[in-house]
Amino acid sequence: MTAPFGRRLCEVAENQVSGGYRIFSLIDREGPAPEPGQFYMLASEKSWGEGGGRPFLPRAISVAETAPAKDGVRLDFLVEGVGPGTDRLCDLEAGENVWVAGPLGNSFSTPKQVNPGAAGAILVGGGIGIAPMAIWRRRLVEKGIPLRVLLGFRNEEHSGGLNELFCAGGALCPDVRLATEDGHAGHQGYVTDLLATMLAGDDATSAVVYSCGPPAMLEAVKAMCAEHELACELAMESPMACGFGACFGCAVPKPDGGYMRLCVDGPIVRGDAVLEVAHA
Amino acid sequence: MPEVCGIELEHPIVNASGTYDAIAAYEVFGEELIEDFPFSAFVSKTITPEPRAGNEPQRIWETPAGMINSIGLPNKGLEGFLAEDLPELAKLPVPLIVSVMATNKEDFARMVSAVAGRDEVAAIELNVSCPNVHSGLIVGENPDETEALLEALRPLTEKPLIVKLTPNVANPEAVAVAAEEGGADAVSLINTLKASAIDPVTREPALAAGHGGLSGPAVKPIALQQLRAVRAAVEIPLIGMGGVSSGADAAEFLIAGASLVAVGTENFRDPRAGSRVANELETVMSEAPPRLAVLDLD
To answer: CA of A3: which chain B residue's CA is closest?
Structure first.
């Protein structure tokens, strides 16, 4: 599946506060529905590059959820304002337009595609990295694949998206466990504490781990999977100007030397295919 | 239809070397890329004699109206390029210009001979923003080095040789004159401006290499002035670039004396920027210039 050539304007359907994050929805009338793990390059049509010249480049944002919409596809993105680009995306209002290129990059593989003997999936998301876990979780549920979802947040200010992306009937989905560093919800500590407990049990021996989150968390997940000889797929992030292989900015070091371009060789990368996450 | 160095082109907009990977873009966008190819000629990413992995990340940093990059010329090397990439690039519907770089005359000669010997290649761009390992001087910063290099390469091919000028010199026109006297068919300018940024969070240089090259709209006025200075100094055609993001920008470069205009960083923001700039340019150039206001100062 290829993306429509170039960028196109998509209208913002809504933009709502969710804890310390924002969830905004675009209506894409031209593109195909994205696969879980894919991303888009986004830049607001107005006030992008105005007032000090930043943001200048579009921002690579992973899709959190998608659904058929009238005349197209709805795309949901979870963002936290951490700089001029994400701040501007957080400020989007319904009816405004966003320049969109995508869907870009590869997507998650099913547990059996990764390992023919695998029976289930463990999803580990941290912070804003819960976004691709949401769309992947739904797809796995639809496929009837057993799964557990472990989500972690630093504190209440740096959390969000749970109600919109991981709840059903007003309650957290039964397969989801939480960890928060400040203890405001779920286990007090790291999400990797929850993963360690799971990996120590018998159920995990035939699982494939999927993870997205801050580099240090991904590095820990990668190391824990290697130790337990479990395959993992990491949804990674790297500074990216273009998203389609042109700028060579998003270099990620490979174990055998050299670099991959995360935009075209990722953003979903097998744990053993990347030398170190934190370096990227 | 513009004609430069004997090559006929559909419109005056090409890409700047290193800002578009047509092979990767085909994987991402499919046949639409070929059907509506954004550039009238395609300039390859610079190739070097041996393969290069490129620089350690972090490689890019956004700046006001631009970006700094220190990519480090990752490429498959001459052999890998000729065997794997050139046959793919030859399928593009436009003439192909191959950018080459080496750190000594012998390697440069080997690359120019090998690349020029391929029918798929219409012209060669010489990336001279690199040191000569024998003299330690950056070739493109030194008129004598530039002229000597051209004198060594000129006899090797009848295909057009284009010298890519660096802006990091006091007098780019002196280097352009040297390139012309050495037998260059055209010069392209500007390459990126040497630049740095500090990450305020880590208090370290933002780029792993410490510094990089600035591009984007921020550099356009500098590029235009260097183009004007070079235009006044040489007769050969100029390929102008530096921060071009619209047809109006491209028009400025043409009016200042460029024969072709390259789009670079804008490709990152808009994968079809080349076509858009070409269309906008046609509109801009077809409009009659406004009547000059008569100022009565008395």
So the answer is: B29
Residues of B in contact with A261 (CB under 8 A): 24
Residue of A85, A239, A246 with shortest CB distance to B58 = A239
CATH number attached to the domain at B3-56+74-194+216-285: 3.20.20.70
Q: Where are the beta strands (DSSP E) in chain B?
A: 3-4, 7-8, 13-15, 42-43, 60-63, 66-69, 96-100, 121-127, 161-164, 186-189, 193-195, 198-199, 204-205, 212-215, 238-241, 260-263
**pTM, two decimal places:** 0.95
Which residues of chain A form beta strands (DSSP E)?
Answer: 8-18, 21-28, 39-44, 59-62, 65-69, 72-79, 97-104, 120-126, 147-153, 167-168, 171-172, 176-180, 187-188, 207-212, 232-235, 251-253, 259-261, 268-270
In the DSSP assignment, the letter for residue A56 is -
Q: Which amino acid is at A202?
A: D
Range of the domain at A202: 111-235
- The answer to whether the CB atoms of A56 and B272 lie below 8 A apart is no
Cα separation, B179 vs B69, whole angstroms: 26
Question: A3 to chain B: which residues are within 8 Å by CB?
Answer: 28-29
3-state secondary structure of A147: strand
**Distance between CA B273 and CA B7 in Å, rounded?**
22
Judge if the upstream peptide bond of residue B190 is cis by omega within 30 degrees of 0: yes
The C-alpha atoms of residue B51 and residue A114 are separated, in whole angstroms, by 31
Same domain? For A94 and A122 the reply is: no
Could you read off the pLDDT of A191-228 as tens digits, one per residue?
999 999 999 987 777 899 999 999 999 999 999 999 99
AA identity, residue A210: Y
Q: Residue A189 belongs to a domain with what CATH number?
A: 3.40.50.80
Q: A45-49, A94-98, A163-167: which range is least confident on average?
A: A45-49
Q: Is B130 a catalytic residue?
A: yes
Sort out which chain B residues have CB atoms less than 8 A from A242's CB and list them: 267-269, 271
Residue A57 has its nearest CB partner, among B20, B27, B269, at: B269
